[in-house]
């Protein structure tokens, strides 16, 4: 335990936001040199090191251990902390290690890094030849894993240490891609005094992570706002602007729209606004009291044509959104989904952002193609970017079977083999080397990406002993 904490303590002293991993890469490189290990550092600040097999394990298959070095940098509103230069201050309270709510801790994935270093320096651990892979940019765009030279890998077995649940064995994850659909429109100046300018605001929804929460029925305000605007098509109005969504992997919680409508029809607008709000309160009963759909006077002179509005409306109402398909392997796991992440109008351009996830690359490609067909039909141009690989479940996995047997023998709870509807670096390694057998495991840690991030000392100690037993008993 002291060995792991000592390594983690050193890591917390090194700033390591995504795309700023130079210092941690240099530290790992020198650490390996100090321990007389083979080591390389590439242009993406990935670090690769090798540890020879212990006596009697020379003929067993090698195993790769992998973790990412970057961390998400979040702090409480009243905390003064510069993540580019300040060390992380952490506290040990009984069994819990945390920053006491001040900043992110960096256990994601500093614990994985510390575990690998502990194994590589533990003279009491017997093991086959080991490879250590420390990647960068996992919290942003996977550029480290994407750029890692897979030809270096000798192992057919890889253990990813980026899992925060000691009793789970992750063995599948989603791949994804983002598509921007854009359409130019002419901004028409409308100064007719017979029209009033109204701003509509829809809020009160829960939002959430587009992977973890897409199947929880939380609603998407971009879609819901467009549903409301569709109820007004018999009225005399023009859309000036619409804006909803903040980030491609976040389900939109708030959307606003500004329109110009005939003053003589304002009463009808208010009636329909009230009726639609009541409809939403029935559809989303668990948050009914929080739902807000209000109007207020606004100012805008330029609007889009009815033709442009109809193209936007019809595209948003028909583009894939939410759960597309459920898994046939894991109970209640989403297999494919699409998040209508952003809708915006700016400088004469409509933009609709869709973020696709799928647990097979073929389904990802299918949904992507469907979106591009729809976008073209409604006069939009598409750009696809930021693809990342899926990691598909393999029925035959000796490594998973070994980990599961050790967990079931040593843990209080039975091991759970899981898939996740989120991206993991495992997908890249699965594609870099044909036939790799991969699992993602780790000790209990929680509240990642927030100042409440923490981990359990007892779980860390227990997990480390299990990991050593996996390495000592692997006979592939």
Account of the 3D structure:
The structure is a single chain. The chain has 476 residues and is of the alpha+beta class. It has two domains: 2-173 and 391-473, 3-Layer(aba) Sandwich (Aminopeptidase); 176-388, Alpha-Beta Plaits (2-Layer Sandwich), CATH 3.30.70.360. The protein is built from eleven helices and 23 strands. It has helices at 2-12, 22-34, 107-120, 143-147, 221-230, 266-283, 306-318, 361-377, 398-410, 426-432, 457-473; strands spanning 38-41, 47-51, 63-68, 91-93, 96-98, 130-135, 157-160, 168-173, 175-184, 188-189, 195-203, 237-244, 255-262, 292-297, 302-303, 322-326, 334-346, 349-358, 381-388, 416-420, 437-440, 445-446, 454-456. The chain is elongated and about 90 Å long.
């Amino acid at each position: 335990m002291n060995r792991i904490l000592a390594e983690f303590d050193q890591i917390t002293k090194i700033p390591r936001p995504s795309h700023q991993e130079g210092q941690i890469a240099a530290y790992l490189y020198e650490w390996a040199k100090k321990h007389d290990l083979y080591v390389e550092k590439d242009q993406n600040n990935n670090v690769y090191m090798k540890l020879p097999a212990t006596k009697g394990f020379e003929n067993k298959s090698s195993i790769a251990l992998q973790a990412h070095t970057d961390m998400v940098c979040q702090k409480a509103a009243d905390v003064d902390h510069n993540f580019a230069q300040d060390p992380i201050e952490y506290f040990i309270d009984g069994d819990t290690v945390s920053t006491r709510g001040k900043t992110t801790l960096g256990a994601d994935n500093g614990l994985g890094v510390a575990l690998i270093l502990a194994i590589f320096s533990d003279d009491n651990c017997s093991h086959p030849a080991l490879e250590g892979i420390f990647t960068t940019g996992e919290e942003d765009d996977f550029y480290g894993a994407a750029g890692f030279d897979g030809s270096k890998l000798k192992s057919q077995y890889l253990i990813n240490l980026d899992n925060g649940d000691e009793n789970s064995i992750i063995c599948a994850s989603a791949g994804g891609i983002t598509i921007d659909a854009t359409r130019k429109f002419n901004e028409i100046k409308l100064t007719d005094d017979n029209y009033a300018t109204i701003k509509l605001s829809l809020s009160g929804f829960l939002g959430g992570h587009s992977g973890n929460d897409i199947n929880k029925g939380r609603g998407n305000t971009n879609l819901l706002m467009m549903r409301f605007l569709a109820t007004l098509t018999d009225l005399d109005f023009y859309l000036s602007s619409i804006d909803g969504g903040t980030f491609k992997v976040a389900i939109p919680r708030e959307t606003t729209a500004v329109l110009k409508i005939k003053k003589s029809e304002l009463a009808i607008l208010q009636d329909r606004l009230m009726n639609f709000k009541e409809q939403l309160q029935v559809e989303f009963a668990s948050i009914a009291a929080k739902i807000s759909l209000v109007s207020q006077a606004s100012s805008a002179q330029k609007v889009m044509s009815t033709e442009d509005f109809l193209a936007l409306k019809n595209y948003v109402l028909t583009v894939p959104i939410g759960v597309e398909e459920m898994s046939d392997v894991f109970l209640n796991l989403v297999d494919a989904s699409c998040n209508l992440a952003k809708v915006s109008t700016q400088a004469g351009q409509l933009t609709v952002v869709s973020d696709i996830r799928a647990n097979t690359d073929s389904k990802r490609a299918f949904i992507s193609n469907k979106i591009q067909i729809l976008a073209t039909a409604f006069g939009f141009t598409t750009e696809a970017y930021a693809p990342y690989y899926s990691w598909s479940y393999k029925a035959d996995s000796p490594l998973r079977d070994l980990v599961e047997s050790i967990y079931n023998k040593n843990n209080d709870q039975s091991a759970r083999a899981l898939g996740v509807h989120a991206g993991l670096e495992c997908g890249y390694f699965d594609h870099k080397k044909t036939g790799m057998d991969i699992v993602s495991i780790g000790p209990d840690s929680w509240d990642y990406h927030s100042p409440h991030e923490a981990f359990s000392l007892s779980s860390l100690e227990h997990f480390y002993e299990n990991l050593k037993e996996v390495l000592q008993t692997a006979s592939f």
